[in-house]
Amino acid sequence: MGARLSRSGSSLSLLPEKQRSGRREQYRNADNDSLDGLDRREDIAQFPYVEFTGRDSITCPTCQGSGRIPSDQVNELVALIPYNDQRLQPQRTKLYVVLSVVLCLLVSLLVAFFLFPRPVVVVDGGIRSVIVHFDNPNSKVLMNMTSTLNFRNPNFFSVLVQSVSCQVLYMKTVIGTGQLDNVTTILPLSQSQVNFTVSVEIGSSAPYVYAFCTMPTIKVHNIVVLMQTSVKTSYMVRTSQNSLEAYRYIDCGSNSTYHH
Question: Where is the composition biased (Basic and acidic residues) (predicted)?
Fold first, then answer.
């Protein structure tokens, strides 16, 4: 009857008092364990990420407890490397530095050697030919003097001869001028020859020259003229000018060709 009348203690009323108290204690511990398990999981979920470095540990400030670095801060972070790390002590550092310096010096010397501008050598090759004409009514001597210039380019790049100008003087009087533009281009480490002609007229400034050049009793009618030649060259954004002066003997009595 006691078992049927007691609803809450239907299963416990049939046991002795000592066993009933033991069952109640087990149920109470089981409930406490389940509550402790829930609390423990919640605490673990809220527990921040920790770096364990031995006996002591610190919370990663950059990871913010997540254990991962935010992608937007990847380019802003700096890694710290211990001073005794092997990456900070590369091998053969002095050798690499010396080789780099020697290589840079060698390249600089080669560039300077090949690209350093050297002056163009200009040599007066003398008079090549003289063509003489006489203007008898006006007592004038007309001549076309062809001269030669020899060029030598010691550079490792081409040189442009921009202009050649020349004037001829007799007794300090200008008797002829001539000029050439865009004469020629001299290839690297090569030589070139240029011929140019100057028209000369001797008349009222020296009337005795006409009589001397047309005198039949004289076989050789040599006169001395001064030739002043100016040569302008350009190369590697640089422009240079050479000036030449030379006294020449020419035969004003007849045509003549000089063989060199």
Answer: 17-36
